[in-house]
Each structure stands twice: as C-alpha cells, then as structure tokens.
Design brief:
The chain is 39% helix and 13% strand. It has helices at residues 2-27, 37-48, 52-66, 75-110, 114-121, 161-166, 197-212, 248-258, 260-264, 291-294, 378-381, 392-407, 422-435, 445-450, and strands at 146-150, 168-178, 181-184, 238-244, 270-271, 276-277, 281-287, 305-310, 371-377, 411-415, 439-442. Helix 2 (37-48) runs antiparallel to helix 3. The N and C termini lie far apart (100 Å).
Length: 460
C-alpha cells in the first residue's frame, strides 16, 4: 500500500507540474516554454533541499541555452539602437555642415563677391586700381631686414638676391685677383670668367639702389638720396664683406677701384675724419685684407673700406676677473709677416686668417674709424660644444667677446659655427642671440630667418 501510495503521490506531483506549466504557458508573458517546466520544477525541488546556489546556476544555464527573452527584456538592445541612430544623425549633420562650408568656399572662388573681384583684379588693365599695383621703390616691398650674415653667399643659386629676399643685412664674397680682374669663388677650381665682383655684386647693387632712389618730378634729387636695398627700412645699410683670398697688398687697390661706381653715387659708408657717415652699402675687408692699408690715408683715401677686427683679443669681463683660457692656447700671430709669402705674386694664397694681416694685438687699435666687424672662429675661440651643452667657461668667453666688441662700437660675429646636428646648431644660435651677438653667421637662410627667436628651446 505504501508503495502504491508513493507512486500515486509522484504521479500527482507530475500532474500538478504539467498543469502548472500549462497554466503558465497560457497566462504568462512568455518567460518560459513548456519544455522548460521540468527544469523549473527541479529548481523548486532543489530550493526545498537547500541546494540554492547550484539551482540558480542551472536556472541561468537553462535560460541562456534557450535565449528566452521577451520584448520587454530586450530594452538594453533597443536603447543601443537608439544611441546608434542618434550618433549616425550627428555624423550626417556634421558632414552636411562641412559640405556646405566647402561649397561656400568654392562659390567665393568661382563666383567672387565685390571685394574679392577688386582684390583679384587690382591693378590690371580695365579694372579697379589700374596702374596702381606697384611702386617705384617696391623692389624689396614686404621684406624685413634681419641681423644675419649670408656666409659664402656667392655659392647660392642666386647670389645676393637670395640673401636680400631672406632679409639678411650682410653678404660675403671671396675675391681672387688674376690678370687685373677680381673673380669670385670659393676656391681656384671654382673660378669662371663670368663670375666677377662686378657681375655678381657691384652692378646688381648699383641697379637695385638706383631703383630705390629714383629721380622723378616729386623726387628730383634721386641721385643724392641714400635709401638702402630694404624698402621697409630704407636707412638699413647692407654690408658687403669682401674676403681677400690672394695677396692683400696687390688686391687692395683693385678693390678700391672696383667700388668706384657705388662711391660715385654716394652709396658707400665712410669715415669723414670725425664720424662715420652711413650709406646704403658698407664694405668690410676680411681674410688677407691688410689692416695697415685700411688705416692708410693714401691707400684708403676715401676711408670707405673697413676692417674685420680680431674678436678674440677684445675680451672684457667684470672688474678683477681674468679671461678664461682659450680652448686652443697656441700663440696668436699678428703683424707684417702675415702677408703673402711672395707679395709680387698676385695669385699667392698664403694666409694666417681673418683679422691677422698686418694687424695689431692691441685691442685699442680697432675703432669705428677703421673697423666695422669684430670676428673670430667659434671653434677656435670658444671651442667645441661637448655633450650638447655650452660650459660656464665658454659662456664667459662669449660674453666677454661680445662686451669687448660692443664697447668699441664694433659688431661681434662668430664664424665656423657647428652645423650638425641641426638641433645643436639651433641651440648655439639661440645662445648667441640671447647673449646679444650682433650678427648671426648662417648658411641656411630659411631656418635662420624664419625661426621663432621668441621661444627658448633646448638643443635636444
């Protein structure tokens, strides 16, 4: 009897479960299928037996196996779709805004409005401003002069003009004397018959200055005005640094003669015995230029060729402080023995370097009456920059050099600056400009003249 009753109870329980499942299937919101009733019953059974955790895992497994979700349970997926549609709408809107902006720009280009039609056609025949597009002196309109020196300027694709276009206020020409003619080039092998001091510099400068100082009904005295090559700053003088490559004694009178066209039109800076009268062009001799001829009243009778003095002997520091030791302590040689080994040989190229030909070791010998620049090799006078950082001793040398030159009215200039790595070169440029060097000796005109000097940078 007990066995039969147990079977009946079990059968009754199963009937109740099926009835319960049938009722759930017909009245519920679709959370369960009929096939899941057994699993749900097992869950109830296990709750009774205390196996809650395991039952929950089985219930979760059952739910995930059959992916049983109704429409109301799908609300996260629906919200994602709404967000996606909203994002697409925003992107489409932004794309349309960009498209209209581009179309608007094209409309101005192809169908310009009134102001753009005037700007585009200004100065042309039959349009506004006819004949007003240029000025008599606009050769260098918009170019601002910058204190930089175009090193080896004659090597550039367009000598002189490239430096002026960049704003450099100083250019350099290496000059050689052969057969009574002054040739320009870096070495004997580079010389050509058509590259002379006259063709590359004297004649172009004369042409530029005649345009900058025209003779008109409004300006009848154009031949005596002294406007320089820069229209934005007409009082700025352009320095022509002539590097004497052959015998200075024989070359000097030829240079004096070659400058006569500029001298005749009053374009050269000169010393009148009392003060310096600045002109559009300032001529400075370097290399084998003999200091004794620059200061000679007969050889340099017009006093319009100035000397490139030796900067290394002009160091000045605070009172009581001695000059730091130079990185190359070998003795500096000056004097008459520096002249070419054979003064009668015009092609002789023997030289002991800038500022040393027939010059003096006394810094007081160099004044504004005879000198304009005070220069020296950076590598020789300051030394190499170790580990990318200028040392304190080197900074003292730089500051003393600049102070000594400027106290005599001369412009401090360093040549043979480091050129690589570029970051190291820029670091040295920054230091020199910050310390007040008067002229930056550069080969890369673009980097030097377009550089933002207001921003302090480290070399790396």
């Amino acid at each position: 009897m007990s066995t039969r009753r147990g079977c009946q109870d079990k059968s009754s329980s199963q009937s109740e479960m099926q009835s319960d499942c049938t009722e759930l299937d017909s009245t519920s919101t679709g959370l369960l299928l009929k096939s899941d009733c057994g699993k749900r019953w097992q869950w109830k059974e296990h709750l009774v037996n205390g196996q809650r955790g395991q039952s929950r895992r089985r219930w979760s497994s059952a739910m995930s196996d059959h992916e049983i979700f109704d429409d109301k349970a799908m609300w996260p997926k629906g919200r994602s779709r709404k967000c996606l549609r909203l994002g697409r709408g925003v992107l489409v809107f932004l794309g349309l805004v960009q498209l209209f902006s581009v179309l608007g720009g094209l409309l101005i280009v192809f169908v310009p409005d009134g102001i753009h039609r005037i700007l585009d056609k200004w100065g042309q025949v039959g349009h506004y401003g006819e004949g007003l597009a240029s000025w008599p002196t606009d050769f260098s309109r918009g170019i601002l002069p910058i204190p930089c020196h175009s090193h080896n300027d004659y090597w550039r694709m367009v000598p002189l003009y490239s430096a002026i276009e960049a704003g450099c206020i100083s250019v350099e020409a290496d000059v050689w004397l052969f057969n009574e003619e002054l040739y320009v080039g870096h070495s004997l092998a580079s010389l050509t018959p058509n590259r002379t001091l006259a063709s590359l510099y004297i004649n172009p400068l004369l042409n530029i200055l005649q345009k900058q100082n025209p003779t008109t009904s409004f300006h009848p005295n154009g031949n005596i005005t002294r406007h320089g090559v820069f229209d934005t700053v007409p009082e700025q003088s352009l320095t022509l640094l002539i590097d004497f490559k052959t015998s200075g004694a024989l070359l000097f009178p030829h240079v004096v003669s070659a400058l006569q066209p500029l001298r005749a039109r009053n374009y050269l800076t000169r010393y009148n015995g009392e003060k310096v009268i600045e002109g559009p062009i300032t001529v400075v001799g370097t290399g084998n230029t003999p200091f004794n001829l620059v200061t000679s009243g007969s050889a340099n009778s017009h006093a319009d060729i100035f000397f490139d003095a030796p900067l290394e002997i002009m160091w000045e520091g605070p009172p009581g402080k001695e000059a730091p030791q130079r990185p190359h302590p070998e003795p500096l040689v000056y004097g008459a023995d520096i002249e070419a080994s054979n003064p009668e040989d015009a092609s002789s190229t023997n030289s002991l370097g800038q500022g040393k030909s027939n010059s003096s070791t006394d810094p007081s010998a160099y004044t504004t009456a005879n000198s304009f620049y005070a220069s020296v090799s950076f590598a020789q006078a300051v030394g190499h920059v170790q580990r990318g950082q200028i040392s304190n001793e080197q900074m003292d040398l730089i500051r003393g050099h600049i102070k000594g030159a400027q106290s005599r009215g001369l412009k401090a200039r360093y040549w043979e600056l480091p050129f690589w790595p570029i970051s190291l070169r820029n670091y040295v440029w920054d230091v020199l400009v910050t310390e007040g060097v008067d002229l930056l000796n550069v080969d890369d005109l673009k980097d030097a003249t377009k550089r933002d000097w207001s921003v302090k940078r480290s070399w790396w």
